[in-house]
């Protein structure tokens, strides 16, 4: 790419101060795509300074002006949609069908919804007691996004910041940096004022930590591991800045005995295998009522055996590689832990698939007879690994589901609407999804407990980037 190795600061592509380089690897071939530069503290300081200068004027732009820039960006994104999808396939390894139908599509859906939400946002209102309430942009925002759904997360952070009148500095994942460069080009073409949006590449311990500690950053928005979220919170605490976090998950999927077993078990397995299992809200703990457990195990084994891995540049529903050797090694360690702890291996296991020598491919894996104390039931694996856990009663299912440090999502499979509602209200999770439903653009995305705080998407996502001012009546 023309701008690989450069940063986007104050409306221009600039040469970094840092000379530290990093290879961007194609995870399917392990070949080098290009090199990026990893930002130094001085590079981050320049980007924050540009955002701080721009905030004075950008925060005073009108709603109509910002809507105009967002509409421009939407048109540009739709024109370059194929580039985004192809880039994600190249640097993440998401199969091309999935990249076009899900990964790149998320960028369109969220941007369209933010435009609708911004039109509905009340920046001024009179409270029931007669006082005037204002919602104003919070300030300069540091945005750190992950590699697993790169454009999805960039849009969920950059767009609400710009829509509400904030300025920002984006640090995308160093493992999938190229789609962020494309997005920076689109923002530039859309006409946003110089300094409103800035982007640096870099590693978390330097670029991410510098953003989090920076006294001129008013808010940090981070998506990634719970471990990194804790570090960002600590770094941000010195300046008492707002921190919103979308972190890990170990989402329970409760399958009751009144379901169509073939349909719901097949969906449950494939939902974990999607995106190579690299999804924070994947239903990785499959809790199955004991009366149908044996049948469910049979179906899951068959579905798992039918799953295939393959070249992400080819169309189809196959599974691509994991993003990096780091992720590959972590998934292998946890698969082996499941074997060592005595879970029944139905499909897959340690090592690469047969006839696979290159690329970070793993075997789609399903464990049965898991208990909730095993590592594979408690730790986020972030690979195509399903853990099946039996339960007897509704009460036991709720107890197992809630017995986790995470609380991002939970899933319920049952045609009984009353039971679904009753159980959903008792689950400690930010999102409860029924019978294969998926979160819609505009709905608040986020979790309880160590899955983070704050919400992304729609009106709730806009409000996270705003400060409340009260003007008291005389």
UniProtKB/TrEMBL annotation:
Q: Which InterPro entries match?
A: Ald_DH/histidinol_DH, Ald_DH_C, Ald_DH_CS_GLU, Ald_DH_N, Aldehyde_DH_dom
Active site residues of this protein: 246
Q: EC number(s) for this protein? A: 1.2.1.3
Keyword Oxidoreductase attached: yes
PROSITE patterns linked to this entry:
ALDEHYDE_DEHYDR_GLU
Q: Does the keyword Transcription regulation feature in the UniProt annotation?
A: no
Q: Which UniProt keywords apply?
A: Oxidoreductase
Top-level enzyme category: oxidoreductase
| Superkingdom per UniProt | Bacteria
Give an example GO molecular function: aldehyde dehydrogenase (NAD+) activity
**Segments forming domain Aldehyde dehydrogenase:** 13-471
Q: Which family does it belong to?
A: Belongs to the aldehyde dehydrogenase family.
What's the name of the protein? Aldehyde dehydrogenase (NAD+)
Its ancestry begins with: Bacteria, Pseudomonadati, Pseudomonadota, Alphaproteobacteria, Rhodospirillales
């Amino acid at each position: 790419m023309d701008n690989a190795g450069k940063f986007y600061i104050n409306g221009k592509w600039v040469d970094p101060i840092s000379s530290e380089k990093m290879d961007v690897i194609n995870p399917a071939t392990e070949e080098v795509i290009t090199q990026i530069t990893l930002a130094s503290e001085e590079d981050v300081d320049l980007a924050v300074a540009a955002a701080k200068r721009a905030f004075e004027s950008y925060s005073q732009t009108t709603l109509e002006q910002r809507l105009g820039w967002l509409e421009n960006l939407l048109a540009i994104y739709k024109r370059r949609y194929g580039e985004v999808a192809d880039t994600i396939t190249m640097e993440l390894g998401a199969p091309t069908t999935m990249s076009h139908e899900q990964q790149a599509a998320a960028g369109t859906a969220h941007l369209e919804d933010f435009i609708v939400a911004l039109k509905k946002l009340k920046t001024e209102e009179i409270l029931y007691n007669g006082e005037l309430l204002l919602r104003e942009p919070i300030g300069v925002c540091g945005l750190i996004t992950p590699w697993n759904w790169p454009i999805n997360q960039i849009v969920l952070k950059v767009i609400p910041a710009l829509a509400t009148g904030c300025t920002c500095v984006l640090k995308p994942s160093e493992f999938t940096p190229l789609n962020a460069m494309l997005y920076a080009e689109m923002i530039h073409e859309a006409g946003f004022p110089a300094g409103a949006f800035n982007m640096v590449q870099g590693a978390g311990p330097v670029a991410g930590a510098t953003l989090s500690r920076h006294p001129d950053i008013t808010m940090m928005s981070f998506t990634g591991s719970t471990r990194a979220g804790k570090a960002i919170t600590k770094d941000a605490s010195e300046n008492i800045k707002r921190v919103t976090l979308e972190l890990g998950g170990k989402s329970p999927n409760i399958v009751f005995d009144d379901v169509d077993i073939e349909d719901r078990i097949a969906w449950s397995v494939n939902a974990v295998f999607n995106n190579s299992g690299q999804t924070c809200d994947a239903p990785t703990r499959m809790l199955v009522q004991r009366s149908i457990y044996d049948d469910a195990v049979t179906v899951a084994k068959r579905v798992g055996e039918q799953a295939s891995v393959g070249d992400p540049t080819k169309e189809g529903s196959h599974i691509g590689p994991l993003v990096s050797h780091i992720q590959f090694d972590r998934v292998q360690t946890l698969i082996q832990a499941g074997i060592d702890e005595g879970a029944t291996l139905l499909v897959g296991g340690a090592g690469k698939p047969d006839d696979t020598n290159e690329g970070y491919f793993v075997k789609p894996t399903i464990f049965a007879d898991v208990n909730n104390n095993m590592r594979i039931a408690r730790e986020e694996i972030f690979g195509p690994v399903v853990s099946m856990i039996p339960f007897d009663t509704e009460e036991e299912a709720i107890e197992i589901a809630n017995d986790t440090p995470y609380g991002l999502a939970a899933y319920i499979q049952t045609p009984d609407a009353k039971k679904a509602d009753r159980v959903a209200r008792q689950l400690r999770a930010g999102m409860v999804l029924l019978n294969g439903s998926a979160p819609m653009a505009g709905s608040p995305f986020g979790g309880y407990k160590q899955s983070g705080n704050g919400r992304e998407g729609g009106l709730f996502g806009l409000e996270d980037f705003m400060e409340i001012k009260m003007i008291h009546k005389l």
